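[audit] Reproducing an earlier prediction to check determinism. Same input, same settings, fresh worker. If the tokens differ from the archived copy the diff job will pick it up downstream; this log only records the rerun itself.
[audit] input (355 residues):
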Amino acid sequence: MNERTELFTGTQEVREQHRFDSKKLEAYMEEHVEGFKGPLKVEEFKGGQSNPTYRLEANGVRYVLRRKPPGVLLKSAHAVDREYKVISGLQNTKVPVPKTYALCEDDDVIGTWFYIMECVEGRVVWDPMMPGVDNDHRTAVYDHMNEVLAELHMVDYEAVGLGDFGRPGNYFVRQISRWTKQYQLSETQSIPEMDNLIKWLPDNIPAGDETSIVHGDYRLDNMVLHPTEPRILAILDWELSTLGHPLGDLTYQCMQWRLPTTDMLTGLQGVDRKAIGIPTEEEYIADYCRRTGRAEIENWDFYMAYNMFRLAGIVQGIAGRVKDGTASSKEAEKMGERAPILAKMGWDVVKRTGG
């Protein structure tokens, strides 16, 4: 088990700053969750950098609770109500998601908004190299990830009640603006490469536009895999989901092929992927294009530089929450230190294109 897996796997006693009155929650669930019967046991999941997540158990049934963290929060961040809405909307599609039970927008229950969903039992794999399984298993998991992402992007969002889940069009304009503001509000150090990306990206957005539901954080460790079979049972962590450009989602996942293989940004850089049954970036893109009916993808480097900028903004936000005392993981400080690495990687992509 690598360091990241050990740090993020399983549950622990609820952290002091995330504690609440479990009796109030129990009373709420008795009223709003069908079939619920106490008494209630509460533990906190170790994983996650943003919204505190808890495993609830009562009368032999397990549930998951996701909440906004306590404290002063950035505008539009930690939108648990949006998570609840998109997971609920995807219930009867080919995209595997947990069953949802209740959304609470009353701060008086546990101190912040929260929602309750099914606890899907299976594997959460934190290492993209998937140690401990054979090559065929690894290949099949990556292929199913590709299939599910394609299915998500082909969902008719209007038909599932998500037509108002975001503003169609100009996705990259809005996202670059949003993450620039979030980054600047959370800035704890000067990162010249980030400043360069903030200037370059708005002037180089590719022509043309598309709209689909996008997950926003689509990667292996945000999925629950079947306990033994190479398939996904549930996609988790929809906090960053919206209506947006599907290629932003695809390049975000493919960014993992380029991230370092050590420290808190565990990726596949330098790994002999063929030797362990993981597709190359090019093969993964080709499979996605086949499934979504695309001939090819132009301007790949823009999308990749954008996503490195975006992830740098996200981890800078984590660093800001460490400073403010609202970070939800003990390892958040380490993660927040990775913003300069990501910004440099993004700017290197731009420089290689002659930008």
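[audit] rerun output stored. Observation attached for the diff report: The two ends are 41 Å apart (CA to CA).
[audit] end
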